[in-house]
Design brief:
Layout lengths: L17 E3 L2 E7 L21 E5 L18 E8 L9 E6 L2 E2 L1 E6 L2 E7 L5 E4 L9 E8 L27 E2 L3 E6 L4 E9 L4 E8 L6 E9 L2 E10 L14 E7 L14 E9 L2 E10 L4 E4 L2 E4 L2 E2 L2 E6 L13 H13 L4 E4 L6 H10 L2 E5 L8 H17 L6 E5 L18 H16 L4 E2 L13 E4 L5 H13 L24 E7 L20 H16 L4 E7 L22 H8 L1
Parallel strand pairs: 23-24, 23-30, 24-25, 25-26, 26-27, 28-29, 29-30
Antiparallel strand pairs: 1-12, 2-3, 2-4, 4-10, 5-9, 5-12, 6-11, 7-8, 7-10, 13-14, 14-17, 15-16, 15-18, 18-19, 20-21, 21-22
């Protein structure tokens, strides 16, 4: 059959031997939650009347072939697969790009593992569960419409409203198998140093063996730039001498490094080869961009030069696939159009995107902010769910040169009790925890503590304001400058929390605009009063951008938004990606 998503799914960490598991799967709803008791994983779903679903599209989407918009909290998937004979005597890794929300996986009826988190990739070594010939993979997914799960813009109500949209459940990114050695390179962390023309490489193996070495070769346009060979000696922590350490660190030089930027997105290819007794047992291809992000004296710096951020909000929804693009060409198109509209950066809003989105940002040159999908209403369960998945997401996306900032919390979603007359004292601690937890994983990028308002510790003062009147914006901004603790903006919340001061952080307007054109549709939604037509929209956007640029200390902005999304129709593109005006007309405003 024709598989819509048949490309290698992880372009920033590539193995040569792989096999897609996208396409047709058996699929069943389990509304009575009988599957575990009845041990569905030990039999055939099709014998229980299973229907077909097309992976990797959520059952709510048209592309899945199911296209059911009702709430079904428990889902079952199953398919068969066989392996190529050349994979014999190798480890077989089962990879899921993303499954929303709680997954349990069996191979040939044996429990392989579980995963919690709707946006994070996960993998299992399934070698010991395989049999010769045909194997059966079964997946059970729980996705409850509760606000303690990180869900972003996926509504937990029966009907769409405002800027909350159709939810998705189950598999929504690619599933695939790949072959590696008995010992293999689990992951690497790449830290470019532009002052010293080198990359610090942290690596993790799945296990340590004797007589191993790790080779790293650096290429620019297929020309070898440098290489490094590291014998992997057996090492232990001082507290333990039982299991050898599986991690390590080394540096590789990049002489006369060409720096990465949106204007010059130079990528160096890296090839890692793990060898045992001189023979390659695992090979991985990735890449690195030599660049540096910093803030100082109220400005954002890229590669030690001040850099004004012209950003757009991008929510990553599509008419047929909801959360999942029909093809990687659609992801590439969104990045290309973002640049054509005059932006040099994008804030992927309330969603971690398909790996190819970040790949095209890296390749074509577009800075990105990565934002956690929100829970709503703080409690202990929210804290556990957010902190666990967030750490894994930061680690997973660390190596993308396009990623310049992390946004763990947006508009106090998940800590909304901050606005109570007597706020829960845990909430500020949670904000602080998310900031410092992120910095503990990645001190090289910016962290926006609470994008929009009620900010504690943060690297950027991030303001949201959707007034449609440029003069009104100026008045509100002047009041904020006079008193950052005042409720100057139309959302009626202070930008800074008591006890936290604006020091030398850059100030940005990280949401504004959202201009909607009159369309006569009762259900359509946008911010403020409608623009009469495209010309009125262009004039309003220009006035708002000019009002922001008049503020000398503002270091950048983020316009809402790139595309219409379902009932929210304030995009520069329609939901099916048609420009509402010539992109060059918008680019003249934003550039």
């Amino acid at each position: 059959m024709n598989i819509l998503r048949n490309e290698y799914p992880r372009p920033d960490y590539v193995r040569e031997k792989w096999q897609t598991l996208n396409g047709s799967w058996d699929f069943a709803f389990d509304d009575d939650d009988r599957g575990l008791v009845e041990r569905w994983h030990e039999g055939r779903l099709r014998d229980r009347g299973a229907e077909e679903i097309i992976v990797p599209f959520a059952y709510q989407s048209a592309l899945s072939g199911v296209h059911d918009k009702e709430v079904h909290p428990v889902l079952w998937y199953q398919r068969e697969f066989s392996l190529d004979e050349s994979w014999a005597n190798q480890s077989v890794l089962l990879n899921f790009g993303a499954v929303d929300y709680f997954s349990t996986v069996w191979v040939n009826g044996a429990l392989v593992g579980q995963n919690k988190g709707g946006y994070i990739a996960f993998s299992f070594d399934i070698t010991k569960y395989l049999v010769e010939g045909v194997n059966t993979l079964t997946l059970r997914v729980e996705d409850n419409p509760v606000t303690s799960q990180p869900r972003g813009k996926q509504l937990a109500k029966y009907n769409n409203f405002g800027c909350w949209y159709t939810p998705i459940s189950g598999i929504w990114q690619s599933v695939w198998l790949e072959a590696a050695g008995e010992t293999y390179l689990d992951h690497v962390r790449l830290q470019p140093n532009i002052e010293q023309d080198l990359v610090v490489v942290d690596y993790w193996l799945n296990q340590h063996q004797r007589n191993l070495s790790l080779e790293c070769a650096v290429y620019l346009e297929d020309q070898l730039v440098s290489s490094h060979v590291l014998p992997l000696e057996e090492r232990y922590n001082w507290q333990s001498d039982i299991i050898a350490r599986r991690d390590g660190k080394f540096t590789v030089t990049v002489p006369d490094a060409q720096l990465w930027s949106p204007e010059n997105p130079v990528l160096y290819d890296l090839v890692f080869q793990l060898k045992k007794d001189g023979q390659t047992i695992d090979k991985v291809r990735t890449y690195v961009g030599m660049r540096k992000i910093a803030v100082e004296n109220g400005k954002v710096y890229l590669n030690n030069e001040p850099y004004f951020l012209r950003m757009v909000l991008d929510q990553g929804y599509w008419p047929e696939g909801i959360y999942t693009a029909k093809s990687i060409a659609e992801l590439e198109f969104d990045v290309e159009m973002t640049k054509k509209f005059g932006f040099n950066a994008a804030r992927k809003h309330q969603k971690f995107e398909d790996p190819y989105y970040y790949y095209y940002c890296d390749k074509l040159g577009l800075l990105t902010w990565c934002e956690m999908a929100a829970c709503y209403h703080y409690d202990e369960e929210v804290s556990k769910n957010i902190t666990d998945e967030w750490q894994r997401l930061v680690i997973r996306h660390y190596n993308h040169p396009s990623v310049m900032a992390w946004v763990p919390i947006n508009e106090s979603w998940g800590v909304e009790q901050l606005s109570n007359r007597q706020p829960d004292p845990r909430l500020v601690s949670h904000l602080q925890t998310m900031y410092h937890l992120t910095k503990s994983l990645d001190p090289t990028r910016l962290v926006i503590g609470n994008d929009g308002w009620q900010m504690a510790k943060t690297d950027i003062i991030a303001i949201h304001e959707y007034t449609q009147d440029a003069e009104d914006f100026k008045r509100r901004y002047a009041q904020f400058k006079a008193d950052p603790y005042s409720k100057a903006f139309s959302h009626d919340r202070p930008i800074m929390l008591p006890g936290f001061a604006i020091e030398d952080q850059p100030i940005m307007v990280t949401e504004f605009g959202g201009v909607k054109i009159q369309d006569g549709n009762v259900g359509s939604w946008g911010y403020g009063h409608d623009a009469k037509d495209v010309e009125d929209m262009l004039a309003r956007v220009e006035a708002l951008v000019s009002a922001i640029l008049e503020q000398p200390e503002v270091a950048g902005y983020c316009y809402t938004q790139l595309t219409d999304v379902q009932q929210e129709v304030n995009g520069l593109l329609t939901f099916d990606r048609k420009p509402k005006a010539d992109p060059e007309r918008f680019a003249k405003i934003f550039v």
